[in-house]
From TrEMBL:
Protein name: Dihydrolipoyl dehydrogenase
The family this protein is said to belong to: Belongs to the class-I pyridine nucleotide-disulfide oxidoreductase family.
Additional comment: The active site is a redox-active disulfide bond.
Keyword DNA-binding: no
GO molecular function, a single term: flavin adenine dinucleotide binding
Gene3D superfamilies assigned: 3.30.390.30, FAD/NAD(P)-binding domain
UniProt: FAD binding residues: 57, 121, 319, 325-328
Native species: Agitococcus lubricus
Domain FAD/NAD(P)-binding residues, every copy: 5-334
Length: 478
């Protein structure tokens, strides 16, 4: 007789494990299937905790501290002499952070009475799941209420730069370099490419980023993307736009990349090459033909606004479905689905999902850009304020970037916020909360912000929307 659970979750990443935990909190009997082996051991947390968000942020932080010690302390009157980096220790610390967090997720599942099944899961018909354990043992599991598909995503590989064991790598391989490459190439100037390029650039690599698009970070407000490109270029990233990679060849441990730009065919030589051209939904072996679950041409599972598939009792969340491939989006979808399965109403506001790029300075945004609002036919007013005149930022010698707000000129309602600067990923939450509560720009203008703080730039940017910023000369408005 097969095992029965109220809910079976396939995938133990951020979306899957949060769905499992919330379902268990709501009194449901839950199993979570996860196949990942990290360093040879079963591991929860998905891409994010094992080879994505968390290890990359650990390396970003280590590299920033090294660069700051080497380049940024003298202005404070601090002398440290020669500064060196122990890459092996940096990687060890990264692995310790990963182990602590993935182990913590395992304890959370155990503490909530969730059965962790270590192996693969394939959805069959009638909410049945074929489970194959790592030792090959197979059984069919029945979900009485629902199955949640949360298998995540995988890096996109490109034929012109096929991966090798240690020279041409994807984002996972780029987290595991044992030494700093002298010349590093990055294909793709998106979030992952810029973050990984920043890590190794700070540690001493000469980094060239090849981006096929002619525009830099096109999803951002144009003012913010222009500022980001200027800052990252000044830091040493050689960002080449309109550069379409057409081939690669490895000789004697050096990879020669051929690419095409507006001037014609060019080549560049690297010691390591990172392919960071995006991610795709990971549905390999996930859906049996009998499941009947519909997918689109790109492999995404088709769902409605509450993550229901076309099959009753089957839901799909996170990177498997439409929308941004972000861990926090997957988490909220997982909890939303758990609530619905338990008989409650739940709905995510997809208009207030934050995006963050963890370069230094960070880049973060929420809601609409000025360009998006105008394209939607909205009469827009906007304002921005630079950190270079913010007392707290100057005191910290970290005054790059700005805060920008976009609002509806007729109703005064806040439409979007963007920040490029220190702690932008935390600061942008002020805009997210304001959007959730349908705040006006006047609401933000009337609030009292502590002095001296970075968040004063938020207040000044809100005032600037109506030409009222105090610490910047404003144009007189009619």
């Amino acid at each position: 007789m097969s095992q029965e659970f109220d809910v079976v979750v396939i995938g133990g990443g951020p979306g899957g494990y949060e769905a499992a935990i919330r379902a268990a909190q709501l009194g449901l009997k839950v199993a979570c299937i996860e196949k990942r082996l990290h360093n040879g051991k079963p591991s929860l947390g998905g891409t994010c905790l094992n080879v994505g968000c968390i290890p990359s942020k650990a390396l970003l932080d280590s590299s920033h501290r090294y660069h700051d010690a080497k380049e940024g302390l003298a202005i404070h009157g601090i002398s440290v002499g020669d500064v060196s980096i122990d890459i092996a220790q940096m990687q060890t610390r990264k692995d310790q952070v990963v182990a602590q967090l993935t182990g913590g997720v395992a304890q959370l599942l155990k503490g909530n009475g969730i059965v962790w099944l270590q192996g693969t899961g394939k959805l069959l018909s009638n909410k049945q799941v074929q489970f194959v354990a790592h030792d090959g043992a197979t059984e069919t599991i029945q979900a009485t209420k629902a199955v949640i598909l949360a298998a995540g995503s995988a890096p996109i590989n490109i034929p012109v730069a096929p991966l090798t064991e240690d020279i041409i790598v994807d984002s996972t391989g780029a987290l595991a370099f044992s030494e700093v490459p002298k010349r590093l190439g990055v294909i793709g100037a998106g979030v992952i490419g810029l973050e990984l390029g920043s890590v190794w650039s700070r540690l001493g690599s000469e980094v060239i980023v090849l981006e096929a698009l002619d525009s830099f970070l096109p999803m951002l407000d144009k003012l913010v993307s222009k500022e980001a490109q200027k800052i990252l270029t000044k830091q040493g990233l050689d960002i080449r736009l309109g550069a379409k990679v057409t081939g690669s060849q490895i000789n004697n441990g050096v990879v020669t990349v051929t690419y095409q730009d507006k001037e014609g065919e060019k080549t560049a030589e690297f010691d390591k090459l990172i392919v960071a051209v995006g991610r795709k939904p990971y549905a390999e072996g996930l859906l049996d033909a009998s499941s009947g679950v519909a997918q689109d041409a790109r492999g995404f599972v088709i769902v409605d606004q509450q993550c229901r598939t076309n099959i009753d009792g089957v839901y799909a969340i996170g990177d498997l479905v439409r929308g941004p491939m972000l861990a926090h989006k997957a988490m909220e979808e997982g909890m939303m689905v758990a609530e619905i399965i338990a008989g409650h109403y739940a709905q995510i506001n997809y208009d207030t999902i934050i995006g963050v790029i963890y370069t230094h300075p960070e880049i973060a945004w929420v809601g609409q850009t000025e360009e998006q609002a105008k394209a939607a036919g909205i009469d827009v007013k906007a304002g921005q304020f630079p950190f270079q005149v913010n007392g707290r930022a100057l005191a910290a010698n970290d005054a790059q970037g700005l805060v920008k707000f976009v609002a509806d000129a007729k109703t005064d309602r806040l439409l979007g916020m963007a920040v490029i600067g220190s702690n932008a990923g935390d600061m942008v939450h002020q805009g997210m909360i304001a959007l959730e509560f349908a705040a006006s720009i006047e609401d933000l203008q009337l609030m009292t912000f502590a002095h001296p703080t970075l968040s004063e730039a938020v207040h000044e940017a809100a005032l600037s929307v109506d030409g009222r910023a105090i610490h910047a000369i404003q144009r007189k408005r009619k």
